């Protein structure tokens, strides 16, 4: 059926990470790294030998002390932070946990969004029988807030380019919130209908901007990665 979603157990059955063309470093010093993760590459290793190729392992081949601070979904591309050593990892993790890191994503979604900006404030919880999918649950879910803004509307293609700012950082938050808004992200194999997931060769979601304080000297780092779609 057109509206059916693919079984979750098949989502990683054909995991084929993109070729290793070297690290796309946006920032590097003795305390931290900011790397551009390509779509289709795991942030951290998965289960089993064939799932060991990931951004963390590629970075650690060059910087052995690099430790993951946060993650991006497998199909999401864009900026990802790693700490060099346990102390730097801990300090950076605290910045993320206390919401002192500003993140902006860009996405192409199905349909033409009528309003120019808004918020989605819907609590999320893991859909355990269908994990890793998440779902809205007003009784047991954890609060999740996304601010969105229209950047452009493509009337001919029936799609909208949006800027997304996750105030909270729940798993799959942007993907579930845009689906709940009635405008799933194109290429989303977990949440979009067949037509919308087949409309793009990958999930059209990119972590484009990252602003945070350096864990040592407290200076502001503002980094931008060009959107590849």
TL;DR of this structure?
The protein is of the alpha+beta class and 229 residues long.
Low-confidence stretches: 1-10
Average pLDDT for all residues: 93
- Estimate the strand proportion: 25-35%
Helix/strand/pairing class, anyone?
alpha+beta
Biggest sheet character: 10 strands, mixed
Tell me the helix content. Answer: 10-25%
User: How much is the radius of gyration in Å?
Assistant: 18 Å
Return the string of H and E elements. EEHEEHEEEEEEHHEE
Cα-to-Cα separation, first versus last residue:
28 Å
DSSP strand count: 12
General description of the model:
The protein contains four helices and twelve strands, in the order E-E-H-E-E-H-E-E-E-E-E-E-H-H-E-E. With 229 residues, it is an alpha+beta fold. The radius of gyration is 18 Å and the shape is globular.
Give a quick set of tags describing it.
alpha+beta, single chain, 229 residues, two-stranded antiparallel sheet
Tell me the layout of helices and strands.
Elements: E1 25-28, E2 32-37, H1 55-60, E3 66-68, E4 77-84, H2 86-97, E5 102-110, E6 117-121, E7 124-126, E8 134-136, E9 145-154, E10 159-166, H3 173-180, H4 194-197, E11 205-213, E12 220-224
Parallel strand pairs: 4-11
Antiparallel strand pairs: 1-2, 2-4, 3-4, 5-10, 5-11, 6-9, 7-8, 9-10, 11-12
């Amino acid at each position: 059926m057109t509206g059916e979603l693919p079984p979750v157990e098949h989502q990683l059955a054909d995991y084929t990470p993109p070729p290793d063309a070297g690290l796309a470093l946006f920032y590097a010093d003795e305390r931290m790294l900011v790397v551009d993760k390509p779509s289709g590459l795991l942030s951290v290793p998965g289960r089993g030998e064939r799932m060991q190729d990931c951004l963390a392992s590629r970075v650690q081949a060059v910087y052995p002390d690099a430790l993951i601070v946060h993650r991006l979904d497998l199909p999401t591309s864009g900026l990802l932070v790693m700490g060099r050593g346990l102390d730097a990892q801990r300090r950076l993790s605290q910045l993320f946990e206390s919401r002192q890191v500003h993140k902006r994503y860009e996405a192409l979604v199905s349909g033409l969004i009528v309003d120019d900006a808004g918020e989605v404030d819907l609590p999320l919880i893991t859909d355990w029988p269908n994990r890793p999918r998440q779902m809205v649950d007003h009784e047991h879910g954890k609060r999740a807030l996304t601010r969105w803004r229209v950047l452009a509307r493509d009337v001919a293609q029936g799609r909208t380019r949006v800027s997304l700012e996750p105030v909270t950082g729940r798993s799959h938050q942007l993907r579930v919130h845009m689906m709940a808004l009635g405008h799933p992200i194109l290429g989303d194999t977990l949440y979009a209908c067949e037509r919308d997931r087949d409309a793009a060769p990958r999930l059209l979601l990119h972590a484009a901007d990252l602003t945070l304080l350096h864990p040592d000297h407290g200076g502001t780092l503002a980094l931008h990665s060009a959107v590849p779609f």
